[in-house]
């Protein structure tokens, strides 16, 4: 009875709640990626298990198919997703630790785009009983509940790692260490894209393998009727789409575009941006 | 109101809360019904605002596992919705539990009745294990009985998945009297065998009508087990002396089970002894138990509708509901006072654990039919 994880519908994909609120699709894409990066960084600083970090990123990506960035900030929701996923994966973390780690990350981001960006970053810890802490704690509790509620309490996620090992073994690539590492890396980077909310795991794993063999010049049977991905029930078009999502992460971006997301972590920032940039409907 | 809020509100209106039937630290329980059909349900409202650490782990585990499990012998989670800041779980409403039935001295159990309860327990458990879920808190008051006699495994507040071998897990689970010796010795890597031990204890309790291994402390629990089943030798259980919390607790001879279970058939004792094997790897699995000769020998299991039922309808579908799981409860509480319940604390709350939380749900006047 291994339940398949829920995926976004075509309608949800075409019109996300954030784009309905006027946020350009490309900005939403960047903010999703940035939110996931924050989750990943926080996970590393907290020495949290990768299973919890990965599950958090999947929940985070799903969330934006039912909610708008005008109403929820990627910072809060990312923090809530990591908190919830840590409980789901049986490795709970302390709220205070999580809040402190997010505070460091967000202060550093604010510093990078602030007026003193050319000076070295220095962290100013929040006071132990200060309102800043209690405000963040409150929003963390709200975020956790909102994620559960908006995902219909459906928190089942499937991670790709076991499947990757299995497929590499079948394809006889398991002994090639660089192939494994590379494919593993593509799977991890893919968490910054929405693919885990759009395609089933076998398709995503095949895409990671496809990128790997292309980049390492490994040849596998790829002509009909002998296509290696068909062994795993993946179809070429889906796989190619996933590859596209992943490769887009690595494209060259002007610095202004890269920094734009750093100032849009909270819903307030997003609202202000919408007021400044989107003419009233 | 966006689509999500609307869906949630619609869902909320489907369930009507009638009366409060109990309150624990983390949850308030209501008896209620489905608006359209009038079907009775239990609504477990998890209080969120007041927790220190957001949503309670046991509530999250219940949502996570019960959403996935659907089986005749596992309690059904009908719906989940949130109201303001609270989380509400809508569960099947069940009239009583096995503990109440065992304690009701007016009832007489036939061997066929016990066989029927055991079969339903193993069926539900086999389903959980087949789906890679450990229950980790099996005891008579977590085995609920529906009005048609069906037994359902409830309270997944301590459950977890075990797909990953070699994954360290806490040994502070399972109410002491039903806790297997490997957990008492501090084993951090364990599997389905822990649940089977609990079922063995329940099996024995059904025959004896009193708890089989009522230890007074963790240390006394080991002694109680060894007194009943003999101290394990290195042959019985290779490597047990190397477990983290191993302590020798004295040498006890192994008395034949027959001495205590005088009326039991040979098949019965054979299955019981296979559930209570010291070496976890040699303990019978739920799947093998279901095809054990015991279940195919006469007398055949009673039909659920023919099983003994409580004479009084109690105010008590409560344990299913009681979100308030706590680890080191004081099992002695049960022996001294009927109104006190044994519970388990959520492992995240290790510090609060030394104080047994006692709740009295039994104050409401018993309504007799």
TrEMBL record, chain A:
GO terms for molecular function: cyclin-dependent protein serine/threonine kinase regulator activity. InterPro entries: Cyclin-like_sf, Cyclin/Ssn8, Cyclin_N. Residues 27-155 form the Cyclin N-terminal domain. One of its GO terms (biological process) is regulation of transcription by RNA polymerase II. It holds the Pfam family Cyclin_N. It comes from the Eukaryota. PANTHER family: CYCLIN. This is Cyclin-like protein.
Automatic annotation (TrEMBL), chain B:
Residues 329-369 are annotated as: Disordered. CDD domains: STKc_CDK7. InterPro entries: CDK, CDK7, Kinase-like_dom_sf, Prot_kinase_dom, Protein_kinase_ATP_BS, Ser/Thr_kinase_AS. The active site is at residue 137. Its EC number is 2.7.11.23. Transmembrane segments: none annotated. GO terms for biological process: positive regulation of transcription elongation by RNA polymerase II. It holds the Pfam family Pkinase. Keywords: ATP-binding, Kinase, Nucleotide-binding, Phosphoprotein, Serine/threonine-protein kinase, Transferase. Residues 15-295 form the Protein kinase domain. ATP binds at residues 21-29, 44-45. It comes from the Eukaryota. GO terms for cellular component: cytoplasm; transcription factor TFIIK complex. One of its GO terms (molecular function) is ATP binding. PROSITE patterns: PROTEIN_KINASE_ATP, PROTEIN_KINASE_DOM, PROTEIN_KINASE_ST. Belongs to the protein kinase superfamily. CMGC Ser/Thr protein kinase family. CDC2/CDKX subfamily. This is [RNA-polymerase]-subunit kinase.
């Amino acid at each position: 009875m291994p339940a398949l994880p829920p995926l976004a519908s075509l309608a949800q994909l075409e019109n996300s709640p954030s784009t309905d609120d006027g946020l350009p699709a490309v900005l939403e894409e960047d903010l999703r990626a940035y939110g996931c990066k924050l989750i990943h960084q926080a996970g590393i600083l907290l020495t949290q298990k990768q299973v919890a970090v990965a599950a958090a990123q999947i929940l985070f990506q799903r969330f934006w198919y039912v909610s708008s960035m005008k109403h929820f900030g990627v910072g809060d929701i990312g923090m809530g997703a990591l908190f919830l996923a840590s409980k789901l994966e049986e490795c709970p973390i302390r709220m205070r630790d999580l809040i402190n780690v997010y505070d460091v990350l967000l202060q550093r981001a604010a510093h990078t785009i602030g007026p003193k960006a050319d000076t070295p970053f220095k962290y100013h810890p929040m006071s132990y009983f200060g309102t800043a802490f209690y405000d963040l704690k409150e929003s963390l509790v709200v975020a956790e509940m909102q994620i559960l509620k908006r995902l219909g309490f459906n928190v089942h996620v499937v991670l790709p790692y076991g499947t990757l090992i299995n497929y590499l073994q079948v394809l006889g690539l398991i002994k090639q260490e660089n192939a494994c590492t590379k494919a593993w890396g593509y799977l991890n980077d893919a968490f910054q894209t929405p693919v885990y909310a759009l395609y089933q795991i076998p398709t995503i794993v095949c895409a990671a393998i496809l990128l790997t063999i292309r980049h390492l010049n490994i040849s596998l049977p790829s002509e009909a009727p002998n296509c290696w991905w068909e062994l795993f029930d993946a179809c070429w078009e889906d796989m190619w789409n996933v590859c596209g999502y992943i490769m887009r992460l690595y494209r060259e971006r002007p610095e202004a575009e890269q920094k734009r997301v750093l100032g849009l972590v909270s819903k307030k920032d997003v609202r202000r941006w919408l007021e400044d940039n989107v003419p009233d409907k | 109101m966006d689509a999500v809020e609307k869906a949630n509100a619609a869902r909320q209106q489907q369930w009507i809360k009638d009366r409060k039937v109990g309150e624990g630290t983390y949850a308030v329980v209501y008896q209620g019904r489905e608006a359209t059909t009038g079907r009775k349900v239990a609504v477990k409202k998890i209080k969120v605002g007041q927790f220190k650490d957001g949503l309670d782990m046991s509530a999250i585990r219940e949502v996570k596992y019960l959403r996935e499990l659907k089986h005749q012998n596992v309690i059904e989670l009908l719906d989940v919705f949130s109201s303001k800041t609270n989380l509400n779980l809508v569960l099947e409403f069940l009239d009583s539990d096995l503990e109440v039935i065992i304690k009701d001295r007016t009832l007489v159990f036939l061997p066929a009745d016990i066989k029927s309860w055991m079969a339903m327990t193993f069926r539900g458990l086999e389903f959980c294990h087949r789906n890679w879920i450990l229950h980790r808190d099996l005891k008579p008051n977590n085995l609920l009985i529906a009005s048609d006699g069906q037994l359902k495994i409830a309270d997944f507040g301590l459950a977890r998945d075990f797909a990953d071998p070699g994954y360290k897990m806490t040994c502070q689970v399972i109410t002491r009297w039903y806790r297997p010796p490997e957990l008492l010795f501090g084993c951090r890597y364990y599997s389905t065998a822990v649940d089977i031990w609990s079922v063995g204890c329940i099996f024995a309790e059904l025959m004896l009508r009193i708890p089989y291994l009522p230890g007074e402390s963790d240390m006394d629990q080991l002694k109680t087990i060894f007194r009943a089943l003999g101290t394990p030798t290195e042959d019985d259980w290779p490597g047990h002396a190397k477990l983290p919390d191993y302590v020798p607790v004295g040498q006890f001879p192994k008395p034949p089970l027959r001495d205590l279970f005088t009326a039991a058939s040979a098949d019965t004792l054979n299955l019981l002894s296979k559930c209570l094997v010291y070496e976890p790897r040699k303990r019978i699995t739920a799947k093998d138990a279901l095809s054990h000769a015991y279940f195919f020998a006469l007398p055949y299991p009673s039909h659920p509708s023919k099983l003994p039922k409580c004479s009084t309808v109690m105010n008590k579908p409560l344990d299913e509901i009681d979100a308030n799981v706590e680890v080191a409860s004081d099992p002695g509480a049960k022996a001294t006072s009927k109104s006190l319940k044994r519970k388990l604390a959520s492992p995240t709350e290790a510090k609060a654990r030394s104080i047994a939380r006692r709740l009295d749900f039994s104050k409401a006047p018993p309504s007799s039919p």
